[in-house]
Amino acid sequence: MSGKRDGMDDLPACPCCAERVTRRGGVRFMPRTAAPMGACGECLLPPPPFQLGKDDAPPSLPLPPFEWPRSQAEIEVLVERVVADCKACLDRVAALADSELSFASVVAPLMAQPNYKTNPLVCQAKHLQHCSPNGALREAAAKASTAFAACKKQATLREDVCAKVRAFAETAEAQALPEYEAHFLKSLLDDFHRGGLTLAPEDRAQLRRLLDEDSEACSKFKRNLGEDASRLSFAAEELEGCEPDFIQQRLDAASGKVVLSLKYPDVLPVLQSCSVGATRRTVALARDRCFPENLELVAKGIQLRFESAKLLGHKSWSDMVTERRMSGCPETVISFLEELRKKALAGAEADKERFRRLKAAHLAERGELPEGGPVDVRLEAWDTSFYHTRLLKQEYGVDHEAIRKYFPLHVVVDGTLGIYQELLGLKFAEITSFDRWHEDVRLFVVNDEASGDCIGHFYLDLHPRDGKYNHAAIFHLLKRCQKEDGTWQLPVDCMLTNLPPPSPDGTPALLRHDDVVTFFHEFGHIMHGLCAEGQGNSTHLAKCPRDFVEAPSQMLENWCFHRGSLQRLSKHIETGEALPAEMAESLLKARNVGEGFFMCRQIYLATLDLTIHGKDPPKDAAGLQALVDEMRPRLSLVDNPPGCNMLQSFGHLMNQYSAAYYGYLWAEVISADMFASRFQADPFSKEAGMAYRKQVLAVGGVGKISEHLAKFLGRPPKEDAFLKARGIL
Question: Is the distance from CB of 47 to CB of 63 less than 8 angstroms?
């Protein structure tokens, strides 16, 4: 891979020229961030121009270490570099002599291999699959993600590396490791076990095939969701009850029809506000029928996971997953869910009957009652959000469309950032000139208020577009770690949401209160990523248990129901006034309306997840359909419409949340206890905020979460606060 440049024999050879000429036809081929030391200008791609923001000034604040790819070839080079560096890392460990084995030589290199999130090149290569407006780049980035997943699996399949880790584990140094370091050695040994190195060679090969096929099925599932271009057309009168600006923004001048996608900013307003039942039905059915090929992928994925778990000696995938969680086993989770359902069921049935009667009265007003009268009115899947919204408006004075006018997007963003800065002792500064993947993207640098030290960056990419990730999520692009020169690489996070964009005429986007809650929640995940401290948090070996990771953000949702917070998060689009006291009071009183009913839905989803990942998973799409048809009415109290299956778009079960969706409810019990114990008396207590930052966020996934919580709470967690907050006790 080396070669001399003509006329420059007296200079060191460029390490890339020969490869460039022989493999790339002489063209420039390597991004600067992926190039080895000494690469010449002919081999390097020119630096990408900054996509400038509010001004044309060069950036004056520190930037994340990213240059986003502009071509498939760049992504391919990044993948080649990461895979090669990872192999080299593993080879160095495998080549160690017995006398050279130590924590520093064996464990430390494997804690932050080049294919982990400590490497900026990994993020550059794969992140654009979720957000690039360029379909070819999304596809290339998705392939990169698959390649890195395979690379990470390969690391757990290296017998020679495993042998060195096992040999080190037998040394006196390993036996005397402090608890912190011993955690990582144990985690590595567990990784090798889960990679199949304790299996016979033929079983090991089978496991590798299963894991690779599952990764590919998950990638196809995500691509199908992101690439969906389905559209529904309605006459304006078919959207009666929806806001005029919602209709106007989606009006196609050529056809005179209102055109809707199946993404949440289009779907939710219809399901919540449209008075025309037939329209709601059309939208709901389209949403749950539009990805039929995904059901086959789910069926394939759960079978592959089941077979993988069995090979590794587990009864099921859910047994294998929960072994590493706070819960410890699926039986504990099932018992937890069943106890919650028993406590919530009476309220849920009363909520359902309340919604049904409200529907009957509404149909009577419209002259649409069935022949049998009110007793024959059924509550359908497309009715629940609408009649919940109607109930809030009629009996609690909660008019979500009126409330929207108090929540312009920019006010919510600025207010949220302000509250987090105050609570956690941080300072944010926006960077306007930086390399971005789309003009909507914003970038902020985060500093500790007391010391002034920079602790990281975060991106915000808030509006929907074709090909973009279609839910709300946080992506931890880069983790904190110490570099070879002793300096610290700082973490970088990114929020992707599908909040409504400003109108073409510049009118600010308006958010529903539940959108405000979503934004506040997701930003809590950013803070979790940026506030984590220490070298150990940079590695996948110190991830937070999946059934805890939602607790910090769920706890912070309480600020969206606090009068002081609502004043800071709101400003009427026309008058500039904050949300009036009576509206805020209505929101607070209505918080638990329908709570039993909607908790049963969460219990249904969590139970469905555990069931399909249990000891007897459905064998095919037909089996999945039969399971949903049976479980949905029994657990959620709502019939499943014929041919509908939300598993087709339930992305959680085709990523790291498989057999872990219960974690939302599990974590909410913890979150309610944290808020009630430390913040309810004073949500803006800086003392409590700093304790939360240092005792809950900073520790990341290192150590036992239960012990960190006990330190923060002053005792082990209890569920009483959760049951009271949900109106169950």
Answer: no
CB of 604 closer than 8 Å to CB of 635? yes
d(CA 175, CA 188): 15
Q: How far apart are CA 147 and CA 126, in angstroms?
A: 10
Helix/strand/coil for 53: coil
- Percent of the chain topping pLDDT 70: 92
List alpha helices for 570-685, DSSP H: 581-589, 595-612, 621-631, 663-678
Residues annotated as catalytic (active site), given as ranges = 522
Amino acid at 629: D
Between CA 30 and CA 47 the distance in angstroms is 10
Pairing of strands 433-434, 51-52: antiparallel
Looking at 4-18, 248-262, 588-602, which range is the least confident one? 4-18
CATH class of 51-156+158-194: mainly alpha
Q: Is the pLDDT of residue 55 over 50?
A: no
**DSSP assigned state of 460:** E
Q: What pLDDT sits at residue 8?
A: 36
Encoded tokens for 597 = 């009913």
**Half-sphere exposure (CA, 13 Å, Cβ side) for 710?**
7
Query: What CA–CA distance (Å, rounded) separates 699 from 242?
Result: 46
The domain limits of the chain are: 1-47, 51-156+158-194, 229-289
